[in-house]
Amino acid sequence: MFQTNPTDLRITANTGTKARTLMLACGACAGLSLAVFITAVNVEAAEANNRKPYDETVWEGEWQAEDTLFSLRVVPQGSRFIVEPVSSLGLEWTSSNGVINGNNGTINVEYQGVSAQVLVQLISDSSAIVRSLSCQPDYHVVCTLVSNQQALFVKVQGPLTGSVN
After folding, report:
1. What are the boundaries of each domain within the chain?
2. Which residues contact 56 (CB under 8 A, 6 or more apart)?
3. How far apart are CA 73 and CA 86, in angstroms?
4. Could you tell me the pLDDT band of residue 163, with boundaries at 50, 70 and 90?
5. Can you give the pTM of this predicted structure?
6. Is pLDDT above 50 for 158?
7. CATH T-level fold of 56-157
């Protein structure tokens, strides 16, 4: 049996077609929400790509994942960059040399048997969006957790100028 109470939106569902219909409707709502989120991210990325490219000094410095203590140092070297842990919170990871292309950078990171290609998009001279472009093996729990996720990194210290904020 399927019952709704329009005043407090309580739903009682046992079994049957109506319960499956509700599940499908909830799935469609979740899919729509995801599509809206992806569109917002893509618009933000397009806006970031249309900005004038930042110079090398914008990349350089200490960057911290928003609302965490995790931070790393980015050291640009021409069109490449390296990443060094500052406060890695005990996470042991390795990375290749990254490649800078305007306001975007890509870098390969390895952590606990996972290999990921990560995209970094500068959205200002003191903030960047970071997300995984690929993650292997895709069945690994780390890959599952980072799928369709992004993190905001804020610059907390520049090259030789000290604190940004």
Report:
1. 2-50, 56-157
2. 76, 78, 100
3. 6
4. low
5. 0.65
6. yes
7. Lipocalin (2.40.128)
